[in-house]
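In the design runs reported in the main text, the only information available to the sequence generator was the tokenized backbone. The following block is the verbatim input for one such run; it is reproduced so that readers can re-run the procedure and compare outputs position by position.
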């Protein structure tokens, strides 16, 4: 019996990689410094796994930005617009790599970044490969080989982790009409073959191909491509041992395909789909071993060792010990690094902490399961097993978890609670009468740059180095500056900047009952962006108002309208580590009622525009379409419960980013937000087509400024995007805004970009009015 890990968190226990990347990008450190940090982190992670007793240790799971971008660079799938950068004398591979991720705007070059979207149903973002009809691939980056060699030099014959060929193609986007990206498989296979030959020549024995699309709905063509690709690989590499890794869902109708592929090991996710084990065991051929994903790679709860052992023993009885591997359900990329460094009991109580396991602890859970299943139990393993049993019982019986009042309120929900008083057309008239907004109204999504100074204030406040009164004064001053600056440049609907907030979910979780927190429970969202998800351990309710104080203060500073800013119930659910002892839909309803209370209090305080952000609503979709409607029913209802307790004249906004909307546009419309703002700039307004084809009835703010890139778009660029928007959406429905919040940007970029955005809106408005006058004159 073997143990293995599909992938390990790359950011480091103290976010060393984040800091190293950002220092390099700012010019404060050298490329060599960055590369050294990466090498040291990889080595530390390999040693950790070796010490824990993991048999097959992965390499190439480390990335400086994103593993899919790494694959694009490895196979030379580099969009033509980056050729200018490659041709520069001072060019480096890392310059190209980060330009593809973040854009490039210096040395006389202005190159846009590649598109970014969510990795399946997680909050991790990947860089979307771009494909053309005559796409050429070549073995460009040696990263995969170099990491394997470094591991070998450290005494570890590692298992290279490679994004599977079919999954890589399916993750990408055709950038022109008239071809199917799957047709690129033969050309791409030539490069994959080169990579495998190189790895084999250096002594690689095991290769892991990540093929999560095997757990999704597949076309017949995709299934045929899978068969062809992996039969060709096996034909050329009879001696290499291959693991096909599936995760996030069960194989279901793709089971016969998966077990027919001529690989050595099939990995299945028994956390997301425990019921699939019996089906797999019925059909698995004698040539195939089975990797059991029994330790949850996406949540922080301690593994129920006894429950996992039942899966392992059943599989061993069917297949024998030598054909069984034990692993987490998916890469531990989605888990925080190390629970041992959570030392502050005021932040995370010992009772709740004992129920949890982070990535490092999950290594030991995997190793313990092997020992227990093999009957090789020393005193340390026996002690771990006893402690595990106590923790599982403690969590089930703890009085911290259940609240009678919350449960009664959930039982009392009626359909009326999720309905506005009148339809949008009636509400729109009432809102315009009160708000008096111009054509193409401008706004931002909520947050403004949080400078190091602002972050230092928060840190000092938490340490007790500044009083609550001093902290409040500093934040008020920063808010006042932001409000008056927005007035000066002419933004129509203002925001207070959110300087008092740490993270859009963590901030609310800190004020809601049923949530716990960590000091170092960081996970990667994209690039150097890390988030620290709250932990929902019990019933959720709102003890006190959460945002009214700051919204009311900001509104008192201006005669213009200031938005109240909230995070929606689905996003709070999705971006937290969620309790697994009740349906997610019930937890979401509890959060929705808490947000509803806040919305009503904001309205009472005179806030007439309230934004309830739901960027994660598509992210929560089940990976199989047959299960979508059940999820969408409760997710949309939760949003509507949170938003529907206000008068017609109160305008409800929502925001969504990095999502494809075509197949859920009906459900987006059912949310019935008065205004929706969406990411659109990287896709050049392509995402707006779904709203146009559907004839979306409410108002829309398509983002005209990509905030995930440091490059500053020109006014002319934004005017062109607004023209594209007007071509598909009536002008009277359009708002003008950035793609997302500006918290991670610098003030100099923000000031230039938003000033240009306001000018672009004015030009679009003037142009539209002129055109209307001409049309009316002609008529």
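Verbatim output:
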């Amino acid at each position: 019996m073997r143990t293995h890990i599909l992938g390990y968190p790359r950011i480091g226990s103290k976010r060393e990689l984040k800091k190293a990347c950002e220092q390099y990008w700012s010019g404060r450190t050298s490329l060599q410094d960055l590369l050294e940090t990466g090498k040291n982190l990889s080595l530390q992670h390999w040693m950790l796994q070796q010490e824990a007793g993991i048999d097959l240790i992965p390499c190439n799971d480390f990335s400086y930005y994103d593993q899919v971008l790494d694959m694009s660079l490895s196979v030379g799938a580099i969009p033509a617009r980056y050729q200018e950068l490659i041709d520069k004398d001072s060019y480096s591979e890392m310059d190209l790599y980060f330009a593809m991720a973040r854009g490039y705007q210096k040395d006389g070059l202005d190159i846009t970044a590649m598109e970014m979207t969510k990795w399946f149903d997680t909050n991790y973002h990947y860089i979307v490969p771009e494909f053309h009809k005559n796409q050429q691939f070549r073995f460009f980056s040696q990263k995969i080989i170099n990491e394997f060699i470094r591991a070998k030099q450290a005494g570890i014959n590692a298992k290279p982790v490679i994004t599977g060929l079919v999954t890589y193609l399916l993750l990408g986007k055709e950038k022109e009409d008239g071809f199917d990206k799957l047709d690129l498989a033969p050309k791409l296979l030539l490069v994959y073959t080169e990579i495998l030959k190189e790895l084999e020549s250096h002594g690689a024995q095991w290769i892991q191909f990540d093929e999560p699309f095997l757990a999704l709905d597949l076309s017949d063509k995709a299934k045929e491509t899978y068969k062809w690709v992996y039969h060709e690989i096996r034909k050329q590499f009879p001696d290499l041992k291959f693991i096909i890794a599936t995760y996030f869902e069960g194989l279901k109708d793709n089971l016969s395909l998966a077990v027919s592929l001529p690989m050595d090991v099939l990995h299945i996710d028994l956390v997301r789909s425990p019921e699939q084990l019996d089906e797999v065991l019925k059909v698995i051929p004698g040539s195939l071993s089975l990797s059991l994903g029994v330790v949850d790679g996406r949540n922080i709860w301690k593994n129920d060792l006894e429950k996992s052992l039942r899966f392992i023993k059943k599989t061993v009885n069917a297949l024998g010990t030598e054909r069984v591997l034990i692993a987490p359900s998916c890469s531990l990329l989605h888990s925080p690094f190390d629970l041992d460094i959570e030392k502050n009991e005021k932040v995370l109580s010992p009772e709740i902490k004992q129920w949890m396991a982070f990535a490092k602890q999950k290594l030991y859970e995997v190793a313990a399961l092997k020992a227990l299943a093999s009957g090789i139990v020393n005193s340390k393993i026996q002690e771990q097993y006893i402690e595990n049993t106590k923790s599982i019982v403690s969590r089930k019986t703890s009085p911290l978890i259940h609240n009678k009042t919350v449960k009664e309120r959930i039982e009392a929900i009626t359909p009326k609670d999720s309905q506005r008083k009148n339809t949008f057309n009636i509400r729109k008239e009432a809102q315009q009468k009160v708000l008096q907004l111009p054509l193409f109204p401008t706004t931002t999504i909520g947050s403004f740059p949080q400078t190091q100074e602002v972050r230092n204030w928060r840190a000092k406040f938490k340490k007790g180095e500044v009083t609550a009164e001093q902290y409040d004064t500093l934040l008020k001053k920063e808010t006042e500056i932001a409000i008056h600056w927005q007035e000066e440049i002419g933004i129509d609907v203002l925001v207070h900047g959110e300087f008092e907030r740490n993270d859009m979910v963590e901030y609310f979780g800190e004020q809601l009952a049923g949530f716990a927190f960590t000091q170092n429970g960081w996970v990667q969202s994209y690039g150097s962006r890390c988030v620290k998800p709250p932990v929902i351990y019990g019933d959720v309710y709102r003890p006190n108002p959460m945002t009214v104080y700051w919204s009311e203060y900001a509104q008192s500073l201006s005669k213009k309208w200031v938005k109240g800013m909230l995070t929606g119930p689905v996003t709070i659910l999705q971006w937290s580590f969620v309790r697994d002892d009740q349906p997610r839909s019930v937890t979401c309803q509890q959060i929705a009622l808490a947000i509803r209370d806040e919305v009503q209090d904001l309205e009472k305080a005179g806030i007439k525009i309230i934004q309830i952000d739901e960027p994660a609503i598509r992210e929560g979709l089940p990976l199989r379409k047959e299960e979508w409607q059940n999820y969408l029913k409760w997710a949309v209802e939760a949003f509507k419960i949170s938003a529907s307790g206000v008068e017609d004249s109160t305008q409800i906004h929502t925001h969504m980013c990095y999502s494809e909307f075509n197949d859920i546009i009906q459900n987006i419309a059912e949310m019935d937000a008065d205004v929706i703002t969406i990411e659109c700039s990287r896709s050049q307004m392509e995402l707006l087509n779904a709203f146009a084809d559907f004839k979306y009835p409410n108002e829309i703010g398509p983002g005209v400024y990509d905030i995930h890139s440091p490059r500053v778009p020109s006014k002319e660029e934004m005017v062109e995007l607004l023209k594209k928007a007007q071509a598909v959406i009536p002008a009277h429905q359009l708002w003008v805004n950035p793609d997302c919040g500006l918290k991670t940007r610098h003030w100099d970029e923000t000031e230039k970009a938003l000033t240009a955005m306001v000018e672009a809106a004015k030009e679009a408005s003037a142009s539209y009015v002129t055109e209307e006058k001409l049309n009316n004159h002609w008529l």
